[in-house]
Design goal:
alpha/beta, globular, 26 helices, disordered N terminus, six-stranded antiparallel β-barrel, 715 residues, binds pyridoxal-5'-phosphate
Length: 715
């Protein structure tokens, strides 16, 4: 019912609520409590359940409005087509029911048909589709000319006007001119709850919210939601008491409740669940058929008193059968998704993260660990350019509960976005950061006795791991400095939860490197033993990062800090390691073809005319540049990208936001084609390692420089 894009961040809460919203619509049409408590049933079906459709509209606006603002008709058209398609299919589905009910035998002039199609819906519950189609067109017109606030203002006016023809009709009918106006309007459509007066407000509300990330805690929004629902109930009962309503679908409180609901759901740190989108759409479309089906089955089996007369069982049987019908659709969607693999996207350049490959890597690595040892996922530098939050969330789902970052701010940001478990800050933090460490329950690395004393002096209680310098001479308290180590234990504000070191030369298997590494390992465990023998608790012990694990497996420890291996990367392609698990890269970098130019022999292209056609050529403009992290020194044919599964060399000089590639040898390249800069396309692959090597750097540098402008999609 809304755009199902490759959206990543925090849409899980919204997705989670969709099936409930669909069931609320079922409730409106079945009245689950009708046979038990009429007033309770009224509260649910005529008041609370009215929240369902505004919720769907607002979520649609959340995605559609910003897209329409930036891409105009290009974003509107596919949306209208998709909804029209759904509307068309649903109409066909209900055509037999409509015919059976005698709709076509009444003298229904073409005008009635038209009005049903445009305003009231071709079947009673299908009003949703024309409303959102018309509403989207109106909002499109508004945002062409106005800013969102002004649009909201006008749409609120339309909504109020609708309100006076709906729940507050009792008031407007007391004013004769208004009454006359509404009676004209009601000869055009049945209700004001339609695409003119109802849908635009919620679409624009969604649009505004898309620029307003929820900043408060979910419980704050939940409290606001609760309060506004109470007011909504009060409004509904007042309406009923004074018999004001012509039809009770629109309430004054509805936009406020929707606002609180959507922000509350968005503040939950969950990632999107596309299956629930399909589930809610199918349940919404088919539930009236299920009502008919359940009645039929009940009649035939003599269970009418149970399945129909008992309103709760009626509601449940309709809901369950609608959910069952949606299963094959969800299955089909999954298959389609996995066979298509690549996410449809409106973006210019983006990163795709392969969650299956990440899970696979975690599995492979976990098998290499000794008992009692767990993976600590190193997600510093935005997870080596992969996207720290996305990676941490996926790791969390795969059972990893320890993370490492370089800076306290990185850790705080993850916490704010709902990452739980241990977060270790590997780098130095100054005393001014201590309150942040405490507030976000981060674990700080202590790098020297003086550092420990400074952190301690702030007067906040924080968790720390002690870094031992066993020979790398970068960070840490010297292995041969027992007084320095014991000084940390004398700091009452520091809760020591771990002791670790870092290996400097674990990467290669040269004799010197092996000797140096073994010496580091020996020194570190000597320190551990001494401390433990003297009764100083050492907490979690950790030594190895990726190459440490692959070349020096089996060290007794609590964690292995893996970065590279998690992402399926090794610094240099073809590195030889003792253990060689099957690791798969999880990142692909893609962009699009914006344009294709024809060049005659001798024509030049790009800055400085650096590319000169040696034959009649075609060059494609690709929507990514060095500001996105694609190295500029791959200019002039040093780099190549994949289009249609074939390599296309970089033509001329790479620009800040775009680059040209020579596609003379690839037939049929056209605007909108997807370009792979890192990753697989057909049978061809470009690995990050290859790209790093050809631009004269290492994989880590290449990936950690991928720009923040790239969106991260999980597939
Ligand atoms: C970056 C880092 C790691 C992770 O290293 P990989 O080689 O990417 O696995 C581990 N430990 C420390 C201290 C680091 O700084």
């Amino acid at each position: 019912m809304t755009l199902t894009g490759g959206t990543v961040r925090s849409y899980g809460g919204l997705d989670l609520f969709r099936p409930f919203a669909a069931l609320l619509v079922v409730a409106v049409h079945t009245g689950p409590l009708l046979s038990f408590h009429v007033t309770a049933n009224y509260a649910i079906t005529d008041i609370l359940a009215r929240l369902a459709v505004p919720f769907f509209f607002t979520v649609t606006g959340l995605f559609l409005v910003p897209a329409v603002q930036t891409q105009g008709r290009c974003a509107l058209r596919p949306f209208l087509l998709k909804i029209s398609f759904l509307y068309g299919i649903s109409t066909l589905l209900y055509l037999p029911v409509k015919a059976y009910s005698g709709y076509f035998s009444q003298e229904s002039p073409p005008l009635t048909l038209l009005r049903d199609i445009v305003f009231d819906g071709t079947f009673f519950h299908l009003w949703y589709f024309p409303a959102i189609l018309l509403g989207a067109c109106i909002v499109y017109l508004f945002v062409q000319k106005l800013n969102l606030r002004a649009a909201l203002f006008i749409c609120a006016g339309l909504y109020l006007f609708g309100l006076l023809g709906d729940s507050y009709f009792g008031l407007s009918s007391m004013v004769p001119p208004l009454n006359a106006l509404y009676s004209v309007l009601f000869s055009i459509f049945d209700q004001t709850r339609n695409g003119l007066f109802f849908a635009p407000l919620f679409l624009v509300l969604g649009g505004l919210l898309s620029y307003r990330e929820p900043r408060r805690k979910p419980c704050v929004y939940a409290a606001v939601l609760f309060l506004s629902l109470v007011l909504l109930l009060a409004e509904g009962f007042i309406m009923k008491k004074f018999s004001l309503a012509r039809f009770d679908a629109m309430y004054l409180m509805l936009p406020f409740c929707t606002y609180a609901l959507v922000q509350c759901l968005r503040s939950l740190p969950l990632s999107g669940i596309p299956q629930l989108r399909m589930l809610s759409t199918v349940v919404y479309v088919v539930h009236p058929l299920c009502i008919i089906g359940v009645r039929g089955v009940a009649k035939m089996s003599g269970l009418t008193s149970l399945l129909v007369d008992n309103s709760l069982f009626h509601f449940l049987s309709v809901s369950i059968s609608a959910c069952l019908i949606s299963i094959p659709f969800i299955y089909y969607q999954r298959k389609k998704h996995s066979s298509k693999r690549r996410i449809e996207t409106h973006r210019r350049a983006w990163i795709e993260l392969d969650s299956d490959a990440l899970r696979h890597n975690i599995n492979e690595l976990t098998h290499l660990l000794p008992e009692q040892c767990a993976l600590m996922a190193v997600v510093k530098a935005d997870a080596y350019g992969h996207g720290a939050l996305e990676v941490a969330q996926l790791c969390g789902k795969a059972g990893i509960s320890a993370f490492a970052v370089a800076a306290a701010e990185e850790g705080a940001w993850l916490r704010k976005h709902g990452v739980s478990g241990e977060i270790l800050v590997l780098g130095y933090s100054g005393p001014e950061v201590v309150p942040l460490l405490e507030r976000y329950k981060l674990t700080q690395t202590v790098i020297s006795a003086e550092h420990a004393r400074t952190l301690n002096s702030i007067g906040h209680h924080i968790k720390v791991h002690i870094k031992v310098d066993s020979g790398m001479h970068r960070l840490g308290i010297g292995w041969d400095d027992p007084a320095g180590l014991r000084a940390v234990y004398a700091c009452p504000q520091l809760q020591i939860e771990g002791l670790f070191t870092h290996l400097a030369s674990a990467e290669t298997l040269e004799v010197d490197d092996i000797n140096r590494t073994q010496e580091q390992v020996r020194r570190f465990y000597q320190v551990v033993n001494e401390l433990q023998n003297e009764g100083f608790p050492t907490g979690k012990i950790h030594v190895q990062s990726t190459y440490g694990l692959l070349n020096y497996g089996g060290l007794p420890c609590s964690y292995v800090r893996v970065g590279l291996a998690l992402y399926g990367l090794l610094s240099n392609p073809g590195d030889h390691t003792k253990l060689s698990p099957d690791l798969r890269p999880i990142l692909s970098l893609r962009a699009k073809v914006a344009e294709v130019h024809m060049l005659e022999t001798g024509d030049s292209a790009g800055y400085d005319g650096a590319f000169v056609a040696m034959r009649p050529s075609r060059v494609a403009l690709v929507t990514i540049g060095y500001a996105d992290g694609y190295p500029r020194n791959l200019s002039m044919g040093k780099g190549a990208v994949l289009i249609h599964g074939q390599p296309a060399p970089v033509a001329g000089l790479i620009c800040m936001d775009q680059l040209l590639v020579d596609v003379t040898d690839i037939p049929g390249v056209a605007m909108g084609d997807i370009v792979t800069l890192i990753g697989q396309d057909g049978d061809a692959v470009i690995t990050a390692g290859q790209l790093a090597w050809s631009s004269g750097t290492i994989t880590n540098e290449l990936l950690s420089r991928l720009g923040a402008r790239l969106e991260r999609l999980i597939c």
